[in-house]
Amino acid sequence: MPEFYQNYLKSQLELRQYLLLTILINLLQSMKIVRLEALAAALPLPILFESRRHKLQKFLSVLGANVEQLWFPLFTSWLKANCGDHQVLYLAIDRTSWKSINLLMVSLIWERRAIPIYFELLAHKGSSSFELQTEILAQVLPLVKDYTVVLLGDREFCGVRLANWLAQQGCYFCLRLKQNEYIELEKGIWIQLKALGLKPGISLYLEGVSLTKQKGFKPYNLAAKWRKKYRGWAPKEGWFIFTNIESLDIALQAYQKRFGIEEMFRDLKSGGYNLEGTNLSGARLKAIILIITIAYTSATFGGKTIKHMGIQKYVGRVQEVGRIIKRHSSFYIGLYGQTWVHFQDGCEDAVVQLMKMARNKRSHFQRGLRAKTLILSTFQLSS
């Protein structure tokens, strides 16, 4: 974990709770599994398995009751250290579900990924209501009050009530509309979005668009684009973005950042920590999501540091021929980096013997060992 994480968590948790949390985070980074039985089986405490499982259950119940108190100060501390005054922050609101779990989350878009800020377990299946959306956003906006905020949401979150509420809070927004939505082009003339004639390679921008005939709702702008075919592939439909941003290009560039939260969900689930494999619920599930958030951001921040050091080539493939975007995000660089430097512990003698058998590669080994030392220093305080 970053040093500021540790300093704060030590001040908020009992020492035994802090030490157990540290062990759990290290287990997550190596196992990438959040099933309680698997964590209990790997927990390196010399007690009975059932005692380890009960210990974890009790700890998660306590932690789950204090998620916001623990995470909000950590997030705001990182924000102040990494984002300048009045910087534009892109927040994404989205929902993901698996089995009987329905999770609503607001995250900060950062480096093509997202950093979780606040989440809520919904008591029902399906879409969230306006009341739930504003309730969760009301928890987040005070944390970013010193910044210019742009909220990004997909079609579930595009409603005139939410747009008005965001504008009243001083926020910009880019909310994607469904194609069957009607807009008022001129007074009394309503047309369905899919009838506007948007085609691949075409974009358009309309000012002062109304989405409802009810009084009291302000008109906003419509930014639309259908990406053209590239290498034989084109999206099935275009974007229709309801926004108060007064520029087509800026609105589209902003909305495109929303996909960072989908990448984050993939990292938290099957692409990383396998969150959907947990059998927990309620406070214990909230605690596991908090622990994953700490582990995820620790790996991401560590990966960013490794990239700045210029030694990410020791961790993963940096670039592929014909690929514009780098192969690995800061999260994966950080995660793989920790695996690489810690896995040697159980096979150090074999590694030393292999190096001795290839003395002509000595200079390469020395550079690699230095890279390992630098990567280890990035995560040293958590090891």
Describe the protein's architecture and organization.
- The chain is an alpha+beta fold.
- Helices cover 45% and strands 18% of the residues.
- It is built from 13 helices and ten strands.
- It has helices at 3-12, 15-31, 36-42, 49-64, 67-82, 130-140, 160-168, 248-256, 259-268, 282-309, 330-343, 348-356, 362-379, and strands at 88-98, 101-110, 113-121, 148-153, 172-176, 182-186, 189-192, 203-209, 220-225, 239-243.
- An eight-stranded mixed β-sheet has the order 3-2-1-4-5-10-9-8, sandwiched between helices. It has a two-stranded antiparallel ribbon with strand order 6-7.
- A hairpin with a 2-residue loop joins β2 (101-110) and β3.
- α4 crosses α10 and α10 packs across α13 (362-379).
- The radius of gyration is 24 Å and the shape is globular.
% residues in beta strands: 15-25%
Query: Could you report the average pLDDT, rounded to the nearest whole number?
Result: 88
Strand order in space, largest sheet: 3-2-1-4-5-10-9-8
- Number of helical regions: 13
General shape:
globular
> How helical, in percent, are the residues?
40-55%
Q: Please compute the radius of gyration using only Cα atoms.
A: 24 Å
Major pleated sheet? 8 strands, mixed
Please give the number of β-strands: 10
Structural category is alpha+beta
pLDDT < 50 stretches: none
